[in-house]
Design goal:
This protein is an alpha+beta fold. The protein has a single domain (2-97), classed as Glutaredoxin. It has helices at 2-8, 22-33, 49-58, 78-86, 90-96; strands spanning 13-17, 39-42, 67-70, 73-76. Strands 2-1-3-4 form a 4-stranded mixed beta sheet. A hairpin with a 2-residue loop joins strand 3 and strand 4. The model has no long low-confidence stretch (mean pLDDT 95).
Amino acid sequence: MEVVTRMVAERPVVIFSRTTCCMSHTIKTLISGFGANPMVYELDELQDGKQVERELQQMGCKPSVPAVFIGQQLIGGPNQIMTLQVKNQLVPLLIRAGAIWI
């Protein structure tokens, strides 16, 4: 899990994705729509993408993408992100992580 830990330490919001995943696109669009600028790692374009995917699965991400980290904490996949959005908890989480300022 060292690789993923290093990768998520870089920015307030990190999304692991695949270029062909429609749910990944939806989550990236939602978070970017609030003004956040997430670091997006497309696993199918990374040289060590398979290793990163294995680490995400070991962390409990099933399916492995999209996987969203906010404030270096694993939030989860699309179900968790949409639940936070419906409960009006996503924006406050992004603000606390320093990803957006409102």
